[in-house]
Amino acid sequence: MILVKMREHPGLKGKRLPKRSALAAYLAQFKKRLYPARRGRTKRAKVPQRRAKEVHEIWAIDFKREEVVEGCGAVVAPLMISDEASGAPLAGYVHEVRVKGRREGITVEDVQQDLRHAFTLFGLPDAIRMDRDPLLVGSTRLEWPGKLLLWLVGLGIILLINRPHRPTDNPIVERGHWTWECHVLMGRSYPDVVAVQKATDQDLAYRRDHLPSRHPGCDGRPPAQAFPTLYTPRRPYSPEQEEALFDLRRVDLYLSQWEWRRTVDSEGKISLANRNYRVGKAYRGQSVKVRFDIQTREFVCWHVDGRELARWFIPEVSQEYLLATRHRPPPQQV
Fold it and tell me: Structural domains in the chain?
């Protein structure tokens, strides 16, 4: 592109232009100014992918895209939960949003409350499968395990996060989205979102208990008949018992498997957990690593040569924050 512009420049007509290789060699010395530094690859906790063989071994959760409800005109985005082994639709929670195409208004605390209700009905699953929806995993590129992930880990639930842009990794709940739309929304009118939720609950109960299923293992029978333990929890749950069921040591072990790589900015800071932390202006432009110290529950910043540069306590990994049922604004930046 540079050579093209040089050829078009009236002041350079008839003059000898540099070769492409010479121009590249000249520009290479300005690389740091021309190209912003790429963030280093984050090392995440590794969990082998697997498929369920028993009821409530693995649940699949996913938000359906927003739909407009006939009658009241509300825009809704339901969170659907399915059991992988039986294919049974366990629950659907209809959330009203402001605008179609965005899920503004739904918080991670809303998702926690939905799951608490499902856990109360069916118990805790061994694992939950989800896609990389930022509302579920905590960040757009899974750069930080959000509140929902750490809360589930603390409850002893294994996280199965799908590959990017692979809806086929979550086929049961994806098919369930279309079924819900056909059974609940198409050709029907509702006065409000409460009525949509009631119709959703009735439809999912009918599909579990009475509607013949084509899911493998059901043999044409409804899921509750093909899998008699569908209403028997593997691990019972109640909101009153949540604090006793939650183990912060599981969270610590999970965090200790992560490693974050950052480049110190011009102010001597790095970004972590959606906030800035100070490393020092002496390290501007340099690469650092951050790991979780399981003994002190601090995040430790290391220079690439092995020197410890800073330590921070991040409130978002505390038990108080993870179990909180109301949204709280993030702490002040440091």
Answer: 58-246 (3.30.420.10), 259-323 (2.30.30)
